[in-house]
Design a protein that fits this description.
Strand order of the largest sheet: 2-1-3-4-5-6
Number of strands: 6
InterPro entries: CheY-like_superfamily (IPR011006), EvgA-like (IPR051015), NreC/VraR/RcsB-like_REC (IPR058245), Sig_transdc_resp-reg_C-effctor (IPR016032), Sig_transdc_resp-reg_receiver (IPR001789), Tscrpt_reg_LuxR_C (IPR000792)
Protein name: Response regulator transcription factor
Keywords: DNA-binding, Phosphoprotein
Number of domains: 2
Structural class: alpha/beta
CATH superfamily of the largest domain: Response regulator
Radius of gyration: 19 Å
Organism: Jejuia spongiicola
Length: 215
């Protein structure tokens, strides 16, 4: 496929990064048909314009990049999705692999990597940045697999934690005591094999929110 025939939607909430990406893609012959600076706008453009590829940041207002992809696919979108992010932590990479996202690049990568990723994704391959260290992935993958060990009650509580709902509000919504909620939190930490510490479960749940809420 000729580059000028490849349609792209790009999304990033940093105006300078968005402009830089747009200019680089256009100067290399790609057809950027739309830009978005938040997740809702990105989703609307993808569903309306049906681009061949959408290049998305993860951390965007209104909807995260992962949420955009999940919702677009639920609506039947055939667009190929590539994440372009600063995040190289294992949790993010595992989430991308869990959702079978077509490509994952780092913003520190050169344009050659973007160009190569687009080429591979259009061939039907999955492509991840060569800068990503695979070594921590097994640990993060194991934690997500352990979600299946949770009871229905624990899963419900974890989903509420992932939505940043306080222990007090969780207790009230489920008609339980705060002490019971704290016991459930302790059990969840143990089952997931997380290291104990202040806010460890909340932080883990926020990082893995999209996966947790899809359970």
């Amino acid at each position: 496929m000729n580059k000028k025939d490849i349609t792209l939607v790009i999304a990033d909430d940093h105006p300078m990064l968005l402009k830089g990406l747009n200019d680089e893609l256009i100067s290399n012959g790609y057809n950027v048909i739309a830009q978005a600076n938040n997740g809702i706008q990105a989703l609307e453009l993808i569903l309306k314009l049906h681009p061949d590829i959408a290049l998305l940041d993860i951390d965007m207002p209104l909807l995260l990049g992962f949420e955009v992809i999940k919702m677009a696919r639920e609506k039947g979108s055939k667009t190929k999705f590539i994440i372009l992010s600063f995040h190289k932590e294992a949790y993010y990479i595992v989430q991308a692999k869990t959702f079978q996202i077509d490509g994952y690049l780092l913003k520190e990568d050169g344009f050659f990597e973007i160009d190569h990723c687009i080429e591979e994704v259009l061939k039907g391959n999955i492509y991840y940045s060569k800068s990503i260290d695979d070594k921590p992935l097994n640990l993060a993958t194991d934690e997500l697999k352990r979600l299946n060990l949770l009871t229905l009650s624990e899963t419900k509580i974890l989903k509420l934690i992932a939505q940043e709902i306080s222990n007090q509000d969780i207790a009230e919504s489920l008609s339980l005591s705060i002490r019971t909620i704290e016991k459930h939190r302790s059990n969840i930490i143990e089952k997931l094999g997380l290291k104990k510490g202040n806010n460890v479960l909340t932080n883990w749940a926020l990082v893995n929110r999209t996966v947790i809420l899809s359970q």
